[in-house]
Design brief:
Residues 19-125 form the XRN2-binding (XTBD) domain. It comes from Acinonyx jubatus. Belongs to the CARF family. InterPro entries: XTBD (IPR021859). The chain is mainly α. The chain has one domain. It contains 7 helices and no strands. It has helices at residues 2-11, 13-20, 29-42, 52-62, 65-88, 94-103, 118-125. Helix 3 (29-42) packs across helix 5.
């Protein structure tokens, strides 16, 4: 899938510039590659499109910029929570975990660390 994402971005420079602007300082290439895929899979109408029609669409979208901004911030937050879960072992309330895992369905992450929770360690000793 990473190859498909790279190919898609090379054909859509506006989308590539948009998603690159969402990368965090200090984010490793590996984390970014997977979080970028998460963002692109879930961006929907938030990602820019190409062509002249896109300019008119963007002008119309300016009227809804508050809603779009909230949706974008929520998407970014979900992407970070998902990346933190996968790469750092962070856990979130079940409702959030259900949401981010469903949003990430189909994203193949290789070489992610395996984390053991405190509850799992206690259960093994018991």
């Amino acid at each position: 899938m990473a190859q498909e994402v790279s190919e898609y971005l090379s054909q859509n420079p506006r989308v590539a510039a948009w998603v690159e602007a969402l990368r965090c300082d200090g984010e490793t290439d590996k984390h970014w590659r997977h979080r970028r895929e998460f963002l692109l899979r879930n961006a929907g109408d938030l990602a820019p499109t190409g062509g002249a029609a896109a300019a008119n669409t963007e002008e119309a979208a300016d009227a809804e910029s508050g809603t779009r901004n909230r949706q974008l911030q929520q998407l970014i937050s979900f992407s970070m929570a998902w990346a933190n879960h996968v790469f750092l072992g962070c856990r979130y309330p079940q409702k959030v975990m259900d949401k981010i895992l469903s949003m990430a369905e189909g994203i193949k992450v290789t070489g992610a660390p395996i984390h053991t929770t405190r509850d799992e360690l206690v259960a093994k000793k018991g």
